[in-house]
Design goal:
The chain is an alpha/beta fold. Helix 1 crosses helix 2 (29-39), helix 1 (11-25) packs parallel to helix 3 (45-60) and helix 4 (62-71) crosses helix 5 (82-97). The chain has helices at residues 11-25, 29-39, 45-60, 62-71, 82-97, 102-117, 119-136, 141-150, 154-174, 192-202, 242-249, 268-277, 290-302, and strands at residues 182-186, 207-210, 217-221, 237-239, 258-261, 282-287, 309-312. The strands form 2 sheets. The chain has a 4-stranded antiparallel sheet, with helices on one face. Strands 5-6-7 form a 3-stranded parallel sheet. It is built from 13 helices and 7 strands. The chain is elongated and about 65 Å long.
Length: 315
């Protein structure tokens, strides 16, 4: 998938590999990206950031990208294998939504397709992507906003419009243009401000700030690999988006209570709940995938926490 040298993947090839796993294997994007980045130890912080942006950006507007590519593929894209499609999607995203030079996006995708499937499909990819590049040069901000809006599934658009009004729904969707920050969850809310200062001193070029809705949250921008920040290995904080933190906190679990986490995933919310109920309480965790429960137990053990029991159940 990475070309002739699997030991040296590029950011673009890595993003394409994640797309393959998401589309073909129905993998979760975050978990697949994390696994690919862990293997790609040679990538520097800049390329890791690019791979992350290409992965999530492509997925964010995937229906629109597929329609754009289909404009210039008379027989459609349906018969192409997942790897070729993935490279086309990643290249088209760069052409339409980033400042990556068109020649770089097109050339690497064509080379990857040539390595994977030979000269004929490489020529096809080159012809299609050059036409996409020409059209991308005519797109303005309003066109990109429309691409994002059109990529939201119809059922979700309708639900958002019903809840927020059509104008509110569009504003909600367009807020997704900006990549969200990485968010840390501190284990001690009283220590949050001190950790903001410590992290800012450790990485002066990055931006650290207290979260806006969770008393445990620290937002992080521009710090590179968060696993290398002070405090992570010592269990002072874990990575968890602020909305997920708030969902667990909103339950209002108290010392000594017993709680069921019916959709535990890899255990971020479970950890918040376990900390809230304390040693006298208990948290049972359920998820449809046993592998996630294995990860949950590992993650909680690293924080000195333990679920009372775990159950592979699809609620």
């Amino acid at each position: 998938m990475y070309g002739n040298d699997r030991a040296m993947p590029s950011a673009r090839a890595l993003a394409a590999q994640v797309l393959v796993r998401v589309q073909r294997d129905r993998a979760f994007a975050a978990a697949a990206l994390e696994a690919e980045l862990a293997r790609a130890v040679q990538l520097d912080a800049r390329d890791r950031g690019l791979a992350t942006e290409l992965t999530y950006g492509t997925l964010r507007v995937l229906p629109w990208l597929e329609a754009e590519l289909a404009r210039f593929a008379p027989r459609g894209l349906g018969k192409l294998d997942p790897a070729v499609r993935a490279h086309l999607f990643v290249a088209a995203y760069q052409l339409a939504f980033t400042r990556v030079p068109a020649f770089a996006a097109v050339n690497e995708a064509v080379l990857a397709v040539h390595t994977l499937r030979g000269e004929r499909l490489a020529a096809f990819a080159n012809a299609v992507l050059r036409k996409v590049a020409t059209r991308a040069g005519t797109l303005g901000d309003a066109d990109r906003d429309e691409a994002l809006a059109l990529s939201v599934p119809a059922w979700l658009r309708d639900a958002l419009a019903s809840a927020l009004t059509p104008e509110g729904a569009r504003a909600f969707v367009l807020a997704g243009k900006e990549p969200p920050p990485i968010v840390l969850r501190v284990e001690d809310a009283n220590a949050r401000d001190a950790w903001v200062r410590t992290l800012a001193e450790a990485v002066p070029d990055a931006r650290f700030a207290a979260g806006t809705v969770s008393p445990l949250a620290i937002t992080v921008r521009g710090a590179g690999n968060p696993q290398k920040l002070p405090g992570g290995r010592e269990g002072a904080w874990a990575i968890q988006e602020e909305g997920s933190q708030l969902a667990a906190l909103a339950l209002g679990a108290r010392e000594g209570e017993t709680v069921l986490d019916a959709c535990a995933g890899r255990g971020n919310k479970t950890a918040v709940l376990a900390r809230a109920v304390g040693a006298r309480g208990a948290v049972d965790a359920c998820d449809a995938l046993p592998v996630k429960l294995d990860r949950l137990r590992e993650e909680l053990a690293g924080l000195g926490l333990h679920p009372r029991a775990t159950f592979p159940v699809d609620w």
